[in-house]
Amino acid sequence: MAVTITPNSLTMTTQQAAELLGITRPTLVKLLDEGKIPFEKPNTHRRVWLADVLAYKEQRKAEQHAAIAEMGSYDEGKEGREQALARMKKARKIVADRRRAV
Question: Which of 25, 40, 75, 86 is the most exposed place for a label (fewest CB within 10 A)?
């Protein structure tokens, strides 16, 4: 027999969403205010949809993997140490800029 587990509610508090993403609640609120994750405010508290939080988490993971792949494409035989370091610094800056934009 198959067992399916479903959440009690499809909406989450900002604290629950922040814990799921591994970030602080104020950081999550900043993301909500910037429009990066949709939310509802039926009364005085924000509510976010579980599907939207999971979609944002997957998007962020894909961006991180792309940045890591860019950093990991170093081939010592094709370029010198200085060029490789310059390219990796550029990749780290891109990752930092993306993180700040989040």
Answer: 75
Grouping H, G, I as helix, E, B as strand and the rest as coil, residue 72 is coil
Cα–Cα distance, 52 to 17 (Å, whole number): 10
CA atoms within 13 A on the CB side of 45: 9
DSSP H stretches of helix in 49-80: 50-71
pLDDT tens for each residue of 89-98: 888 888 888 8
Q: Give kind and range of the element (H or E) at residue 25.
A: helix 25-33
Report the SS3 class of residue 54. helix
Tell me the C-alpha to C-alpha distance, in Å, between residue 94 and each of 3, 53, 89, 100: 43, 23, 9, 10
CB 70 within 8 A of CB 51: no
